[in-house]
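retry 2 of 3: previous attempt timed out while embedding NDP. Reduced batch size to 1 and resubmitted. Inputs unchanged:
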Amino acid sequence: MESDVLILGSGPAGYTAAIYAARAGRSVKLIAGPQPGGQLTITSTVENYPGFAAGISGPELMDQMGAQVLKYGVTIVQDVICSVDFSAGPPQCIGESGVIYTGKSIIIATGATARWLGIPGEKEYRGSGVSACATCDGFFFRNKSVAVVGGGNSAVEEAIFLTNFAQSVTLIHRRNTLAAEKLLQKRLQDNPRIHCLWNTVVTDILGDGLKVKTLLLKNIDDDSISEIAVDGVFVAIGHSPATSAFTGALELDKNGGIVTFAGTSTSVPGIFAAGDVCDDVYKQAITAAAQGCMAALDADKFLSTNI
Ligand code: NDP
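retry 2 succeeded.
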């Protein structure tokens, strides 16, 4: 059955859109996507989401949002949208299950997925020492040596989190300054188990066929090559918008993000976007939630005016 508002994605943007659209009296169906609850389900403590003075775990925050969504009668479907047809007639979103979902309006909040380095050994040892999620895999590195690649909030948070398990953590960054929040940088500097390698890139991940053993490094100032022994490497170099299903159907920017105009409108009337799928600037849980709210208000207005 066609719902008034079909929402794709179950992170802060999708859930907030669902709450607002349902409370506006619209019938709402939400397709949860490949990672129900989104990226926050694989983070540890969230300390900057207002309303939780003591912090809250990412999974708990998303459980709470999901419960709030269900309270307003939203139908949550466990499926992943793999293609869409917005060319004519009611917009269609095709799920991996084969089900075709339609909505009088659609809010795309599919978020973003972890970026990889694309270097030799990375794919081969994924799950055997290479990871993009310290919260998921940190536990396996008790008393081991690990490296984290990146210089943003994610890399610094992951490095700090990994000291709960690992004996030593080497943060490898291609610049000599970090982009992470000052508070996180201070925690990193104060942590005796973390050591930083600046102006350095990882060129190869080597192992014994079963597990990661060594990283080959290049100093980008003088091109010198070195290596370090590690048991694991965590890649934390940002995320790419999850838009593969929308290629050709919506205008995308050069990074693959959905282009929005005048609030949350996309290049197709009645289709709106919110959160990391269209935001290359702020990328915070709270801004994704705010954009979800905006998208629901925009969709509600579209339905009142056009349907
Ligand atoms: P960012 O885009 O902020 O940072 C990515 C980092 O990875 C940069 O230091 C970048 O370096 C480096 N990098 C990118 N590509 C490569 C590459 N190919 N090889 C080596 N290094 C590379 O991503 P994050 O995931 O850290 O953060 C994403 C967003 O989520 C941010 O807005 C952040 O604020 C937010 N966030 C907030 C948190 C919080 O509030 N606690 C926690 C986690 C994330 P360079 O600068 O050279 O490109």
